[in-house]
Design goal:
Blueprint: H1 8-17, H2 30-46, E1 49-53, E2 61-66, E3 75-81, E4 106-108, H3 116-131, E5 140-145, H4 153-159, H5 163-166, E6 171-176, E7 186-192, E8 194-203, H6 217-239, E9 258-266, E10 269-270, E11 275-276, E12 284-293, H7 299-313, E13 316-319, H8 340-351, E14 356-361, H9 367-372, E15 377-379, E16 396-398, H10 399-417
Parallel strand pairs: 3-5, 3-6, 6-15, 7-14
Antiparallel strand pairs: 1-2, 2-5, 4-16, 8-12, 8-13, 9-12, 10-11
Helix pairs in contact: 1-3, 2-3, 3-10, 6-7, 8-10
This protein binds N-formylmethionine (FME) and zinc ion (2 copies).
Residues 81, 114-115, 148, 177 line the site of one zinc ion (ZN).
Domain Peptidase M20 dimerisation: 191-316
EC number: 3.5.1.14
Enzyme class: hydrolase
Length: 454
């Protein structure tokens, strides 16, 4: 027991929460602080080898290696991101980076659910397995990446291009983050809705604001926005009144397409943007949308819609240039016959007696980079009986749920890293019966991958 009778695992989790590793705006060098903290942890408690790689300056990726007894077998990758989204401190009832714990056992902090809990749970599960002298058959790699919250381009995205990533290959299965589940079950994600961040740009004539000028940039843009919002209303209706809570309705957020107007810009500005010339018709206006295309809708179908909306108004649209161009669906098969890892995952969970609900992740995680290159990836954060609080004010996780998650990973790592060669895996030099991993990425507009039940 640690201080105040607290379990040392919990104390370490709280310590990690105090590092302000906010993507984009943390204190200078804080990413390195987080990685240094993790490497000390590995040195002191796991005694495993590790290395860091920084394809983007100041954005280190930490790779920890636990060698398997049969290193030629495809590896098991446990991925987590150590960056967190900012906290609006004025809306929190506690300090977002103090990792306070209530008497009842709730641990408050930015990253408590997303996903510093998982970073520590992986480490603690492996610490326990090492302590009880369990040896993995397959090599296990822990990867800790930055910048997931910014889209992963300068984190997992660039990591894929490095020799350090090549060294993890072939990968059998990768685990990455999921979401809390308020019910008694865990949720596991085998795919994600595909994020499209769009910019619509309208142009038109100028003139005096007192006249009827036709075809203005603003009017055209508003027409496109109205069509987009109409589409949004229809999708909202399809979801029903549950608001995406997976337990009150048959449909979850992952089953419909969301669209939100998240940026509007226009107007002739004065004084560096402090005021506007409201009597001058602006010649340009822009809107930005966050769209998440559900797995049932081929991206080409959505593309046709937005093309229509824009063509009708004579305006243009483009993908936001700062996002990673992953615009297709990538799914991991949940057919045991196609993907034996799925069966192993389910069996290990069933062994623990906890129900599992497979779903499509409503947002985007680093899993999509892995699925895109054919790696089977499951999004899983072992948090049940817990409200979904990622990115919210007063994010918390109960210490008992955190501790239970370590037990879960212990079981999972034993099952996955202890797995003998699968029939879908080639013997050295020989052919395999078929790829186990992610279903083939469908061509633009194609169906969801083979074996994936939607
Ligand atoms: C377009 S990539 C964005 C990634 C981000 N991930 C977590 O919130 C998300 O908004 O889903
Ligand atoms: Zn996350
Ligand atoms: Zn997040």
């Amino acid at each position: 027991m640690g201080e105040d009778g607290e379990r040392p695992e919990v104390s370490r989790f709280r310590e990690f929460l105090r590092i302000r590793s906010i993507s984009g705006e943390g204190p200078k060098g804080v990413y390195q602080t987080a990685v240094d903290w993790l490497t000390r942890y590995v040195d002191d408690l796991l005694h495993l080898s590790w290395e860091t790689v920084s394809p983007c300056k100041g954005k280190p990726i930490l790779i920890v290696k636990w060698p398997g007894s049969e290193p030629s077998l495809p590896s098991v990758v446990l991925n987590s991101h150590y960056d967190v989204v900012p906290a609006m401190q004025e809306h929190w009832t506690v300090d977002a980076f103090a990792a306070e714990k209530t008497e009842e056992g709730r641990i408050y902090g930015r990253g408590a659910q997303d996903m510093k809990c998982v970073c520590i749970q992986y480490l603690e599960a492996i610490r326990r397995l090492i302590e009880r002298r369990w040896q993995p058959r397959r090599t296990v790699y822990l990867t800790f990446v930055p910048d997931e919250e910014l889209g992963g381009t300068e984190g997992m995205g660039v990591f894929l291009e490095t020799p350090q990533f090549a060294a993890l290959q072939p990968i059998g299965i990768a685990l990455d983050e999921g979401l809390a589940n308020p019910s008694n079950a865990y949720t596991v994600f085998y795919g994600e809705r595909t994020p499209w961040w769009l910019l619509v740009k309208a142009e038109g004539p100028t003139g005096h604001g007192s006249r009827f000028i036709e075809g203005t940039a603003m009017a055209k843009l508003v027409d496109v926005c109205n069509k987009a919002l109409e589409f949004r209303r229809a999708q909202r209706a399809e979801l029903g009144h549950s608001g995406g809570c997976s337990h009150a309705a048959a449909k979850t957020l992952g089953d419909v397409t969301t669209l939100n107007l998240t940026m509007l810009r226009g107007g002739v500005t004065l004084d560096g943007g402090a005021t506007y010339s409201l009597n001058v018709i602006p010649t340009e206006a822009q809107a930005g949308f966050d769209v998440r295309i559900c797995a049932r809708t081929p991206p080409s179908e959505f593309r046709a819609l937005i093309d229509d909306w824009c063509r009708a108004e004579g305006v243009s649209w483009s993908f936001a240039p700062w996002t990673t161009p992953l615009h297709d669906h990538y799914l991991t098969s949940i057919d045991r016959d196609v993907n034996p890892w799925w069966g192993m995952f389910l069996d290990a969970m069933a062994h623990g007696g906890v129900p599992v609900e497979p779903e499509i992740f409503p947002a985007a995680t680093d899993s999509r980079f892995l699925r895109r290159i054919g790696v089977a990836a499951l999004g899983f954060s072992p948090m049940r009986r817990t409200p979904v609080l990622l990115h919210e004010h007063d994010e918390w996780l109960h210490e008992d749920v955190f501790l239970e998650g370590i037990d879960v990973y212990e079981r999972l790592v034993e099952a996955l890293a202890g797995a003998p060669r699968l029939r879908t895996e080639a013997a050295e030099g020989g052919p395999a019966e078929g790829a186990a991993g992610a279903a083939e990425a469908p061509a633009e507009g194609g169906e969801a991958g083979a074996g994936a039940e939607l």
